[in-house]
Design brief:
Chain lengths: ~350, ~350
DNA sequence: TTGAAAGCGCTAACAT
DNA sequence: ATGTTAGCGCTTTCAA
């Protein structure tokens, strides 16, 4: 592949002039520029990334860190939505995206390797799980440009993008209440698994129940499982079967849970919304389940991804920029799965 | 960030010795190695990618070229599945993946830029649409390491990974026939949009119909639309309404089409499979639609991605390796949506 | 407006 | 077993 040197030779100039032309630096006579450009075309010259990076310390690449896996059924609608936004912003700003295949089995997986290698200029953490503490410490200590999506690291260093899940949990519960439901169940995450988003939705649910009913939420109406669909299905079946007062609505903290819950209802020969209303959370279930059309909450995932990449790139360009915290609103979307009573 | 030089200074050796230790080259006294390793630890040294790449010409990165978009609803189950396989293989071989945000609006988008910049060592084309001819020519002419997934470039240069869609189309139609159906409709792609996979499925369908019924397929039972769900919905509604002999089964050339067809049936107040049996194609609809459980065809997307990355990496390591063509089988998966007659 | 020299961090080839 | 020299392709001084 051609180098500056070869282009320079063909154009009869020094390689530095080629560099000037390539980078539009001015201070090049029109005629010279044309000659150089012609040589570039003839040789199919394209500047090498490594040479440039070595000098400038910039890579034009953002790294994605995430414990989530690609392509695993629908598990990753969240990741994909955010990634889409990152992609859009990166396109605008002429950046590439580096995915570093992680090893889920390896608890010591080094998420920061791409940055250590100076393969990327900064990193975005899409955190379906919380960022490991060691990693957080290192990022803050070394002032690594990093933006977190979907979590709020309680650390004075990080910029983050999140949605207001507590409010969304509250408002959703309130909507369900207003539809006439009084026994409203919630499906959340097993204790021990940290997910700030889901935990916040649960807090919002509890606040709404307390406020609307005057009592604390009935713990027997709060069901839990990990992220697997089977576990959710079983927990819904078990929870519903055991419940003394049958709930008339189930607020699922994620759309995947809503799908699994719908499956559980099928298994129990119950119908939605006749026997149990369902409400999801995340904003992709409507592309998937259309009978009944599901009520859910939509997060502006693409916008969140865009914001994350934008903030990161600004920070990379101007390291002294203060950190940013951005909270996006969640939108409730009504649907047939939420029946009126 | 620390460099070899600084490590060398701290360890009291020359920088080349540091290089030797880092790359496990041997020819370093045990004691020296320990001293160097200690210095590396103390300084948090990590080799810079750019310096190494400049020398070796290797980046440890594979580029993905695809006209598909990320995160756009379920459109990309195919891409995600393949990407997952690529990810797995890259993890095995210590490679990163570079996504270059493309501009869908720009017909001259330069897919090869990352390679021209020597940011990647080779590229994988995940072709939901056919690779533009110019690009194909350049790749072949410049011997760019490249593997195509989901298409078979008729060009003596390319390695490719594909599934046997003609056979799958044939076998699927045969299954539907064996379930007792005689008026079997097919949903394919608008003329003008090239997609080898879908075209092959249609050819398989036509061959089966010819063989089983003794006649050519009834053109009024072959419906078409582009990739949007609305268009598919409308074409199914229109096709069914217009049909003189109503079909009892519809073979959809993709799962997205099957979903849209199901929506169309809902709209027409028809039931699946009572009024119209549906069969999909791609292997993710079962994660999505569960009432009725859909009959479909599964492509081993992850295996395909793994194979693509493996072949590409082998080729990068040994440029003289002959090109490879791999055809994966497609598996028919029965479901409630295919009724018996 | 142009060029020469130095250096980014690393490895390869050749000493010692 | 260790070091020296050169050079990968580029940009950043500084000089002409």
């Amino acid at each position: 592949m051609a180098t500056q040197k070869e282009v320079a030779k063909l154009a009869g100039v020094s390689f530095i002039t080629v560099s000037r032309v390539v980078n539009n630096e001015g201070n090049v006579k029109e005629e010279t520029r044309l000659r150089v450009e012609e040589a570039i075309r003839r040789l199919g010259y394209f500047p090498s990334h490594a040479g440039k990076a070595l000098n400038t310390g910039k890579n034009g690449t953002l790294g994605i860190m995430t414990p989530a896996r690609f392509g695993d059924g629908m598990e990753n609608a969240y990741l994909m939505g955010v990634l889409r936004g990152i992609e859009l912003k990166c396109r605008e700003r002429g950046q590439d995206i580096l995915l570093s295949p992680m090893n889920e089995d390896d608890p010591n997986f080094d998420f920061l390797r791409p940055y250590r290698q100076r393969k990327v200029d900064g990193m975005i953490y899409v955190g379906l799980r919380q960022m490991p503490e060691e990693m957080r410490n290192e990022i803050a200590r070394r002032l690594i440009p990093c933006v977190v999506v979907g979590d709020r690291p309680a650390y004075p260093y990080f910029s983050w993008i999140d949605t207001d899940n507590e409010t969304a949990g509250y408002e959703t519960t309130r909507r369900i209440w207003e539809a006439g439901h009084r026994a409203i169940a919630f499906h959340g995450l097993n204790p021990g698994i940290h997910n700030a988003n889901i935990a916040d939705r649960e807090r919002g649910y509890r606040r709404a129940i307390r406020e609307l009913s005057g009592n604390d939420a009935d713990e027997s109406l709060i069901w839990r499982a990990d992220f697997t669909r089977e576990a959710v299905r079983e927990s819904v079946a078990a929870g519903y079967t055991r419940a003394k007062t049958k709930p008339t609505a189930l607020f699922c903290s994620t759309d995947n849970r809503a799908i699994a819950a719908l499956e559980a209802l099928n298994g129990l020969s119950l119908r939605c919304p006749d026997d149990l209303s369902l409400v999801g959370f995340d904003g992709f279930i409507r592309d998937i389940v259309f009978s009944p059309v599901m009520a859910t909450n939509e997060q502006p995932l693409t916008e969140m991804g865009k914001a994350a990449a934008g903030i990161l790139l600004d920070r990379i360009d101007a390291p002294d920029l203060p950190r940013r915290e951005v909270i996006f609103p969640v939108t409730f979307v009504d649907g047939e799965s939420l029946g009126r009573i």
